Every structure is written in structure tokens, then in C-alpha cells.
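Below is a concrete protein record.
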Amino acid sequence: MDDGLEHNPLVSRAALAALHRAAYAWALSLTGYDPAAAADVMQQSYLVIVEGRARFAARSSLKTWLFGVVHNTARRMHRSNRRELALVARFAAEPSETEANGVHGDASLSAALATLPRRQRDVLELVAYAEFTLEEVAEVLGISLGSTRTHYHRAKLALRERLEAP
């Protein structure tokens, strides 16, 4: 059976399926908890993998590689969408607004997370929800381990401060 993964012989359909739920949760986070946008990111990520534009070379775990592909795909789609929105806004009477809906279960936690800078939120969510080590987070986000540690520390402090505020 042809699974379309001939460009990635070290990746199996079963392995991707086992990681799909966690990768989708990461895509949700990257898209401001928009399920349709997250589904688009996942679809584009799988397309990138099947077409061989992202190749797994086993220099990291399959999970960190897949999360990196999802992260890069979401960033690329966000930049593309931003350019499209700028064109639409130029010709439309009213500029469009982006809405972000939190889905972390606790509204106060979701609201506090939303106030964190994007990089801090990404690091914290990868550690807390995807159970990545800081080394894996650094690899997924393409930043140094030192930078990852700094963002993680600052995110925890800021989140604690926001949650303890009256």
C-alpha cells in the first residue's frame, strides 16, 4: 500500500497517527485555538511531509521533528494570511479582526496564557501539554537551549503572577 511517505522512509503512517492528537493540540495553540485553522495547518504539514519538502533524518525524535514541521507550517501560513488580510483591508471599508478562543478548560488560565508573549506561551505549552523537555522545545522552535530556558522561566513567573492577581 502506497502511503505517500517514500520521501520519508523513516516515517510511518502509524507513527504519525500516534502523534496526531498532540500535534493537533500544538497546531490549535499556534492558531489561537481556531479549530479550522489548526486543521488547515495539520493538513498542510502532512502535505509538506508527503511531498518530501520536510524530511525526517532521525537527528531528533519523530515527535520533535513533527512539531517543528507543524510550527514552521503555521508560521508560514500566518505570514501568508497576514499578507492576504492586509490586501483585503486595503480595499475593504472595515478592517477584519482576528478572534482567539481559549480551550484550556479553565478560563482564567486561558486568559493568563493569552497575555504571555507568543514565544513564552509556545515554550510553556510544549512543556506542559506536549510533555517536551526543554531541549526538545529548543529544537522544535529553532532557538538555543539557553533562550528556551529563559523563556520558560519568564513564562512561569508571569503566569504565576497573573493567576495570583486579584
Notes: Helices lie at 13-30, 35-50, 62-91, 107-115, 118-128, 134-141, 145-164. The chain is about 65% helix and 0% strand. Residues 87-105 have pLDDT under 50 and may be disordered.
